[in-house]
UniProtKB/TrEMBL annotation:
Species: Candidatus Kurthia intestinigallinarum
PROSITE patterns linked to this entry: GNAT
Transmembrane segments: none
Name of the featured protein: N-acetyltransferase domain-containing protein
A GO MF term: acyltransferase activity, transferring groups other than amino-acyl groups
Entry superkingdom: Bacteria
Domain called N-acetyltransferase: residue spans: 4-160
Pfam families per the UniProt record, alphabetical: Acetyltransf_3
Length: 160
């Protein structure tokens, strides 16, 4: 597998981010629909603030060679003292093993912090993400509705 390259998003990267989140296929199992430009701008601004606040935690552009293939995040949840990972890929990169590689890379980033638990949320109908998370060592702990969207929560305890 070709190595991934991650770079934190900067304020100048909105167009790259928006190219992902305005794609119906990308957002199918995340919000259920593509984001409007206004929603995308609000989410992106929050991501940039988080990127500026932490060295490791934040949102990343993901590249294979020099090709932008998607988004990954490792976000600190200070209330629960855990990290949340998430990822999005352009459709042409689905089912090629990149999702697994990204999940593993994001967990490795979380391991560089003092966080002991990593969580991820998926749409219960997203079998591909369920397989990715299970292979990455996550266990399903809860299913329900989060922000009006069916959600399954996975967690992994990190070894010290």
């Amino acid at each position: 597998m070709i190595p991934l390259h991650l770079e934190k998003y900067t304020a100048q990267d909105f167009d790259d981010y928006y190219a992902l989140v305005r794609d119906e296929a990308v957002m199918k199992y995340i919000t259920g629909e593509a984001l409007s430009k206004d929603d995308a701008q609000a989410r992106f601004a929050k991501s940039i603030r988080q990127n500026d606040a932490h060295a490791i935690f934040g949102s990343y552009k993901i590249f294979i060679d020099n090709t932008y293939i998607g988004f990954g995040m490792v976000i600190l949840d200070e209330v629960n003292n855990e990290a949340e990972i998430g990822y999005m890929l352009f459709p042409q990169f689905f089912k090629k093993g990149y999702g697994q590689q990204i999940a593993n890379t994001l967990v490795a980033l979380a391991c560089k912090t003092t966080i002991q638990t990593v969580m991820a949320m998926i749409d219960p109908e997203n079998d591909a993400s369920r397989k990715i998370l299970t292979r990455a060592g996550f266990v399903s702990v809860e299913a329900g509705i989060v922000d009006g969207i069916p959600t399954e929560i996975f967690k992994q305890t990190l070894l010290p």
